[in-house]
From TrEMBL:
InterPro entries: CBASS_pafABC_assoc_protein, DeoR_HTH, HTH_11, PafC-like, WCX_dom, WH-like_DNA-bd_sf, WH_DNA-bd_sf, WYL_dom. Keywords: DNA-binding, Transcription, Transcription regulation. This is DNA-binding transcriptional regulator YafY. Pfam families: HTH_11, WCX, WYL.
Length: 339
């Protein structure tokens, strides 16, 4: 990392997190502690009010009440903020987000004016014609998925209100077995994973922390019962935990027909797809052979064959035969579903 980049990053870290020790910064940037001390000296000479604390809990931090002027962000960086906030506002019915979007747009407009480009934006929207390069954003974010069921945005907004007001929420939740159980929870944070909403909460019935998928919540109601937040694990991201599926990973070989190539590209990276002479292709992956796997394979219809493992191929055959028998039964409306 170039020195100027390192100095800018150190400034952001001090503004965002507070105190950093020389050893922490040296490890982060893979430089010596002496280099960090020289960087701090350079930042102080540049006029930044950095305070050094001695002792085992010592380190460097920015003087309280100090902020960076808005012009420290470029117009392009401001534009990235507008793009991100727009994407969130499409997924949430939230007046606060709408107000935030207007504020960021106003800052962007002022930054553009300060750069001599006052005619480029009007409240964050480009005034140039629709065919101009400057009117076309380089990145568009839209967290509102196609096919989302009605009412989901309202549920997310209700959960956000419950978190802000520290009120419990009652619901019926469809668990992994398909059973709808009555639950009462103390929500603490909303999580958007891809285009799927989750809520981290303390479940009063299970007396433990849980992560609920919002689309599986029914009859969601905000109660009048307030709660004091409990200690909960901080979730800045949501990674898959092996404990969620006890099925072990194993090698899987799938042979796809040519018509499946477009859809398969949504599931598997190109380096896992071996293109064959007839246009078909083979995929070799290490995967859990679980319910998600069987649903994925069946969704390709007759355009996929499981070459390995054999027991997975037999299970797909069994499920396909059950499906054929069901639709071959003229009284299928009266038949029962397998447990």
């Amino acid at each position: 990392m170039m020195k100027i980049d390192r100095l800018l990053t150190i400034t952001v870290l001090l503004l965002n997190r507070g105190r950093w020790s020389a050893s922490e910064l040296a490890e982060r940037f893979e430089v010596s502690a002496k280099t960090i001390y020289r960087d701090m000296d350079a930042l102080c000479r540049a006029g930044l009010p950095i305070v050094a604390h001695q002792g085992t809990s010592g380190g460097f931090e920015m003087m309280e009440q100090y902020t960076i002027d808005r012009y420290w962000l470029t117009a392009e960086e401001m534009g990235s903020l507008v793009t991100a906030v727009k994407g969130m506002s499409r997924a949430l019915d939230d007046r606060e987000l709408d107000m935030l979007l207007e504020k960021v747009k106003a800052l962007l407009y002022k930054v553009e004016q300060g750069c001599g480009k006052g005619d480029a934006y009007e409240h964050g929207d480009v005034k140039n014609g629709p065919g101009s390069d400057r009117s076309r954003p380089s990145v568009v974010m839209d967290f509102q998925p196609w096919g989302q069921r009605e009412g989901l945005k309202a549920t997310v907004s209700l959960l956000k209100k419950a978190i802000q007001e520290k009120r419990t929420v009652s619901m019926r939740y469809i668990d992994s077995s398909g059973t709808a159980e009555c639950r009462t929870m103390e929500p603490v944070s909303l999580i958007l994973k891809g285009n799927v909403w989750y809520v981290q909460a303390y479940c009063l019935e299970r007396e433990d922390a849980r992560v609920f998928r919002v689309s599986r919540m029914q009859d969601v109601k905000l109660t009048n019962h307030h709660f004091e937040p409990r200690p909960m694990p901080l979730m800045e991201r949501m990674d898959w935990e092996d404990a969620w599926s006890e099925v072990p990973e194993q090698e899987v070989v799938l042979w796809f027909g040519p018509k499946a190539r477009r859809r398969a590209a949504d599931v598997f990276p190109a380096e896992q797809m071996e293109l064959l002479e007839d246009g078909s292709f083979r995929v070799r992956v290490i995967h859990k052979v679980d319910e998600w796997f069987y649903g994925m394979v069946l969704s390709f219809g007759d355009q996929v064959i499981i070459e390995h493992p054999e027991e997975a191929a037999q299970e797909v055959r069994r499920r396909a035969e059950n499906l054929l028998n069901r639709y071959g039964n003229p009284d299928r409306q009266l038949s029962t579903f397998p447990l």
